[in-house]
Amino acid sequence: MRGPFLTVPNVISLVRLPLSAAAGLALLDGLPVPAVVLAAAAIATDWLDGAVARATATESDWGRVLDPLADKAGFAFFGLCLALKHSIPWWALFVIAGRDAAVAAGGLSLAGRGSPPPRANAPGKVSTVLLSVWMVRQAAAPAAPGASDWLMWLALAALSFSTLSYAKRVFERPGSEGRAHCA
Questions:
Q1: Is the pTM of this model over 0.70?
Q2: In the chain, what are the domains?
């Protein structure tokens, strides 16, 4: 991987992990307000790490791995806590975690072909925002999980579209990696 590991943007990405864990633990302890505040802080780091990296010209391959890894770990743990509280359906958590496992496998496939880590794209960013909004809403004032939860369905639809965008990048012809960006 190119670039230094210990940069300000990468540290910001890494801070997302304990913030997400603390948010999930607060939720399990029956403290929805601290859970929402900590989750919002974790979400803010997702925007902040990229903004700092671009502003300081410290974008790196490490950052392109750490940022989505922190997102996926945060969603998985916070989602697990929401599922344990019966605030999201278990199957939705499995869809999210399964998608993230598939994306990780795709990233390993790209690395095996010598391709750099993929960059974020609009579908990936939209799905991250919608998933974040849905999960925070479910922590703050849960809607009954199910067919009537339009925000859940919107977030999962965006996640599906983002996954297709990512799959397109992974399965492109060798040598054409530079044309597409991933979620």
A1: yes
A2: 8-179 (1.20.120.1760)
